[in-house]
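so the lab meeting is tmrw and i was supposed to have these ready like two days ago... anyway. pasting both below. for each one the top line is the aa sequence and the line under it is the structure tokens. i havent really looked at them closely yet so no promises
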Amino acid sequence: MSDIFDKFSLKGKTALVTGGAGLLGREFCLTLAQAGAVVFAADINPASAQAVAEELSQLGLEAYGVALDVTHPDSVEAVVEQIVSQTDRLDILVNSAAMDPKFDPEHAQNNSNAFETYPLSSWQEALNVNLTGPFLVSQAVARQMVKQKKGSIINICSTYGLGGPDQRIYEKPGQPKVFKPVYYTVTKAGILGLTKYLATYYANSEIRVNALTPGGVYNHHDEEFVRNYSARTVLGRMANKDEMNGALLFLASDASSYMTGGNVIVDGGWTAW
């Protein structure tokens, strides 16, 4: 009889994490590497991706940083080709790269825009990164998984993909109203659709596709926002950045071998009310 903990082992497996230098992406890279996988941290910022890889290497883990623009097919194909050439396999894909106004200061000026005036260019850019990106990467990786006859794809969603945001938590007395942009709910809901489509597309195979839905993760938010957000959760607080790692490892490993097309929600009870 095998030990239950053996099911969580990723020894001999190779993983690709898009957005690997992000707040959660780095955590995902660390988790997969600690479980024994060879990890490729992919990010649009090559220096940041390399920094994550070097950090993991210093811990005695095997990790590599690669530059990846998820919106460009040539970039996606080149990264997948590099990984397969280097390790002869690709077992796990974590689609974590996304535009999110909490983490992208470059797009922060659009946070205050009401739906009625939200720029078309910003909408199209977000759809390209948040939906077309996972489509392109999943497509390229799936071709290798089909050859291997096995694999696990994990799409990172959001509670805002399950329901619209409570815009009231972004309000501040005496300041102009700000809004969580329309694209975030739309694209994260789309990620759930992509998850279910791919899961059923690969029916009767060992290629599994699931979603992981985090709640709000603390990232140096101001006190008023933290207070407003926490009041909406059953646990009364925001998540720490490492609190998605257990669920991610479950989905990446054989511990979830009978699960596909599912969605693991780790939101502190946000959606339980």
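ok protien two:
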Amino acid sequence: MLSFPGQELYWDHSLGRVERWYCRLFGAPIVGLRIRLRRLWHLLPPAATRVLDGGCGRGVITRQLAWRYPRALIDAIDQNQHGQQINQEIAKICHIGNCRFLVRDLTTLDSTGEYDLIISVDNLEHIENDLDVLRRFYQAMQPNGRLVVHVPHYYRRWPLLKWSRNFDVPGHVRPGYHLPELIERVRKVGFTIERAGFSYGFLENLANNLSYAISAAEQKNRVLYALLFPVLNLIAWLGQWGNPRMGAGVWCVAHRPSTEPKPTSTDDTT
């Protein structure tokens, strides 16, 4: 297993030579990704055999799952065909044989009882009918299988000492979720909630906001951001312990019960 998540992006030839070598040295230079991955690691079950990564992007989390569960078969779904081809090539180079990078849309997922672990990290905020996707996750889950969901919180501490509505991000159809809202939506489709909470505590949120202020999601000041990323990641790393009572992300862990509960409602509008 590589030392830093995303070091394998060195083999992504869609990146420039300097970018690839930077990933080789420091891993994926995305503060928010590192924060989410560290939080996710504490939420995952100790074992899994069939895993779905719903909305895998560049595949960094998928490959980490493959190393964590070497005996599992992992399906990683994303709509980006070119990106999935690159992900598959990287997996081959890194001798990761337990991943399948599939070009699919989560809104048309039609598996039944296939997975014992489904994760979805910062994807539901991109999907208009998120409740339908959660229902599809439920259908695809084995009885007693685990669901781990992470999404942006509706509020973000911005500026430093003031909570305000999360800023708009390209591709998002909503700014985020309130924690009770996420819990209710997951419960509504039949899952049983095990635990839920916030991510991005004070130091993590500070580091992430500074990264966004510098780079505007990698759109500007890329050299300055590259120089400061190790420091920002260290700040975020120092803030990873504990369970924040408020944060810029929310998560929940749930399972599909072995006996079918009666759905609370079929109304998709709430």
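from a quick look at the 2nd one: Residues 7-152+173-197+245-255 form a domain with the Rossmann fold fold (CATH 3.40.50.150). The CA atoms of residues 126 and 172 lie 5 Å apart. will dig more after coffe
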